[in-house]
Structure formats: structure tokens, C-alpha cells
Amino acid sequence: MNVTVVGDAPAAVEADAVVVGVHANDRVLRDAAAAVDRAAHGALREVLQAERFSAKVGHVTHLHTNGRLPARRLVAVGLGKRADVTAETVRRAAAAGLRRARDLGARTVALAALGEGMSARQRAQAAVEGAILGTYTFERYKRERSDKQVEALRVLEPDGRRRREATDGARRGDIFGRATWFARDLVNGPANEVHPTHLARVAATVAKEAGLELRVLDRADCQKLGMGAFLGVAAGSAQPPRFLHLTYAPGGRRRKRVAVVGKGITFDSGGLDLKTADSMLRMKDDMSGAAAVLAVMRALPSLKPPVEVHGLIAATENMPSGAALRPGDVLRAMNGTTIEVGNTDAEGRLTLADAIAYAVSRVEADEIVDLATLTGACVVALGPLCAGLFASDARLAERLLAAGEAAGERIWQLPLIDEYREHLRSDVADVNNVGPRGGGAITAALFLREFAGDRPWAHLDIAGPAFVEKDTPLAPKGATGCAVRTILTYLTDGAGGR
User: Fold this and answer.
1) What is the pLDDT of residues 429-453, one digit of tens each?
2) Is-above-0.70 flag for pTM?
3) Which residue intervals of the chain bear CATH 3.40.220.10?
4) What is the architecture of the domain spanning 183-494?
5) Is 349 a catalytic residue?
6) Which residue in the list 154, 257, 349, 449 is annotated as catalytic?
7) 248 φ/ψ angles, rounded to the nearest 5 degrees
């Protein structure tokens, strides 16, 4: 989708479809909707009245203009009450409008300004994000694919004084949206193709195209570093493990050094503590954190944040075999901590332990943020649409929560209850990798905190929202690219950006 900002008015723009917003409880049409209705001789008002259009957020209708407008089709999307419009409202409305235009066969779509009370930059970014996210499809493995695709999106900003600002916002929304698509494609790919070696190839392509530094560590390299926890998980798989380290260095003086760590279990069978068939079915999504990190690193050079960012991924499968990790085994992590394996299906925290220890000792990061589809307990606590946040530093937590709010991604902070550390006690090692069922998301986060030391650290448990089982306003069933836009917002705004 080629995105541009143009100065045409909605009633004068040439396109296959023009999308305008309609507010609930407005007695008369206003803004762009009123302008196109006048040009169409009241046709839009007639359709809205005939359908009793409520204008709830994301509701959509359309009409064919029959030559009354330069655009062949007119799509109206609901924005809810005028006073309640937010950036997320605009995203969802733009997504619904673009989907309807696409399904009608439109290849060129013009989008009138949505969210009149917002700045031109904010509304353009939100609209473009929504348009891109809402029209995502994954048909790589299908013989018959839909030929209905929006090829060009024209964001309308008739006010010349605001056009530069809108162009900046549209560009940012384009980058955010494409990064999310990139992560979705990786997670939606099958595990027989998206394995650790494939992730290393993707990282190499990202590094070459984006001008990033890349270091790929194989099993022998990880052994030299003492990554016993990561390699313990990798022992059961025929696929060789890969530890990936991507570096983005800003031009000029850096303000901060941040490590973003992504869980990279490309398939999780549970190991010898084997999952049930139903639980295993979608475990290709257990590398959603890694996909998010690769997408973030790919986007950073275009956004140019003044922070140094290190993307770290310990990539492996968790498989049962004669060489697999056993319950009761003791592993030694990179920082020297010994870990008793209480359950081989709690493998993600083992790989993250070494990745976080690497961020502390090798990267010397000022802040560490990890992203992981870590626990079913977090899904029980917050449901499938909300990520859980745990943090050792209040200011870091505040910045991430603010970034999530700005990105429209639901994040809720959960407590790190120090008394629950007792649940990880081991009789034979420094720590056990599992605790009791109750508070499972908290004990998993407490386990990870052991390896961050005194560095400001935050953990995003994205087990719920990383993969959805039914369509949502901004994503079809499947991978969502969860946390990509939150982390990009945090790195460009909260961690030292504008």
C-alpha cells in the first residue's frame, strides 16, 4: 500500500473510494461527511437514514456515487460520539473503512481526516496505522488468493498549514503498520519453515537492509559464554540453536542504551513434560516476542531515535527426544545461577534468563525490556486481549504504560510480590524454574528478575494478545504483532525520543 498525503478535498478527490467519518448523535452531517453529501445531492444522508446508521465506532456502510463525485464509491465509517474520539477510535474506523473499500474492489482509496479534535500528526498516524493493520491478510500458502488489495492510500489534508505535520504522522504510521505486518508474517509462518536458522537468516536480511550490526552465536559460541539454561532447552531439538544480537546505533550522541529481548521458541512441544494436542496446536506462536524484536529493529533506522538499541533473541525449539532436558535436571545460567528444572514446559524463562544475563554483562544495557508469550496464568488473569507488565523500576513501567496507551495496545501492570520468591526455592539449586499454579505469571516474572540484577528491567507477558482466535478490529484471526508499536513508541518517545 503506497501512502501519500494530498491536499484534495473529499468531494473533489479522484479515487476508487473515498472514506469519511460520521459521528454518533450529530443531528446533521458535519465536516467531510457534510461536504461529500452536498456534492452527492444528499445521497449519503439518505443511505444513513434508511439504514438507521448508528455511527458506532467501526460501523460501516457505503454507496456508489454514480458520477456525482469523482470517487466511484463513498464509504462512511462510525466514529462514535464526537467528544469521545481517540487515536484508537481513528485506527478502528480507518481499518473498517479500508476493509469495506477493499472488499468493494477499490485499489485507490482516499481517506478524509478522522478525529477533528486531534493534531494533524496524531490523526494521520492513527489513520494510516489502522488502514494498514486492518487490511492485513496471510495467504502465502494458499493456491487461491484474493486479488482485492488496496494499492494506494491518499490521506486528505486540505489545510496546507497542516500538511507537513500530517505527512510526518502518516510516515510514522506507515512505518509502525509495516513493522507490525512483518512480525505477523513471521509468527503466522509454520514452524517447519520458521525455525532458529530461518530467524537467523531473517536477522541477516534485516541487518543488511537496515544497516544494523549483527552477531549470530551458534551452539559452540553459547557454550563458551556459559549459556547453560538456553542450551539445556535446545538439547532436545534436531534444529540447531541460534543466539541473535542486532544493534542499532544512533547518529550523534546516544542518550541511553536499551536491550529489547524477545522469546524465540520457534515451536514449543513442552519437552518431556509434553503438552496436550490442543495446547500444542498453535505453539508456532511461541516466538512472537522474537518476531516483535526483529520488526522493531527493522523499523528503527527509519525512525532514528537517539537511543542505542540492542535486539536479543535466544532462538530454539523445545522438543522431546533422547537428548532432551529432563525434569529434575540442574542447569547453570550465564551469570552462574543454578536452576533446577521443575517442568520442561517452563522453557521460555530459561532461554530468557541467559538472554537477560547477556544484556547485563555483554551489552551493559541501561534498561532491559523483554517480550514473551510466557504464561497461561497471565491469560487467566487478563484474558486474551491484554498483556501483563512487570517491572523492577517504576519510571520504566510508567514509560511503557504510556507507550502502550499511545499505541492502543492494552497493557496492565501486575505486582512483583517478593514473598512469592519463596515459591521458586529449590532443595538442590539456587532456584527452581516453576512455582505453584497460583500466581504463575508473577513467579515467572520473579524468576526473570533474578537475571537482571540491579538494572532497570521490565517484562511484557504477551501470551494472550500475541495470537487471537477470532478477528479483531485491527487484526484477523492469527498473529497480531503485539507490542511492536508499543516498543517503537517507547524507544522513539519514552526512552529518549521527542
Assistant:
1) 999 999 999 999 999 999 999 999 9
2) yes
3) 2-157
4) 3-Layer(aba) Sandwich (3.40)
5) yes
6) 349
7) -105, 125
